[in-house]
Amino acid sequence: xxxxxxxxxxxxxxxxxxxxxxxxxxxxxxxxxxxxxxxxxxxxxxxxxxxxxxxxxxxxxxxxxxxxxxxxxxxxxxxxxxxxxxxxxxxxxxxxxxxxxxxxxxxxxxxxxxxxxxxxxxxxxxxxxxxxxxxxxxxxxxxxxxxxxxxxxxxxxxxxxxxxxxxxxxxxxxxxxxxxxxxxxxxxxxxxxxxxxxxxxxxxxxxxxxxxxxxxxxxxxxxxxxxxxxxxxxxxxxxxxxxxxx
Length: 246
Hints:
Layout: H1 2-8, H2 18-52, H3 58-80, H4 88-108, H5 114-120, H6 123-136, H7 142-165, H8 173-200, H9 203-232, H10 237-245
GO molecular function, one term: transmembrane transporter activity
Protein name: OLC1v1034252C1
Pfam families: SLC35F
């Protein structure tokens, strides 16, 4: 979302007038947010579908996404022929953190329901507020804290449901829920790092390098901890298609 916020600041509609321009900018940001939400919901659906089909390959699912980022944005970066504005090892760290978040959340689909995983993924908001307050000096209004608190209360209700109070879906729903929460910590670290780099440096460089190093980290981890699972998968058109969409 940091990329979208940064992008919208550069748009201008002088013919609308100042007041209408501000309104349309807000509506445009809301539209982008809903678009991102739709894409994330689609990705969650494909992850859940692949898990239900018996494929336990969370790292492989993320590999295709990182490869696409590296190819598209990396091509733009190569065309520009510019030197990196941020040292490569920071991108390696950022990529490593992001891969762990995706691994834990994708792994959670093996144990919990798509509804619980998708809702609990919002724990990222709470962690981001804490991290940006500490490291980026961002300050929030009481209403923003109230909204975050309401979200956390709702997430607590999901945990209680999956613990058995209301019944949860999946083979081990509570274990899956804690995997998601662990993943959101890594996502928050990654998001805050991306926001800092995007605002201070170049957006194309950040996305391309994140994709490249996360792809390399994924390959390394697949070779170590997911190779046997890949060999056991019976590749069908549904699994292949879902993996590519993811």
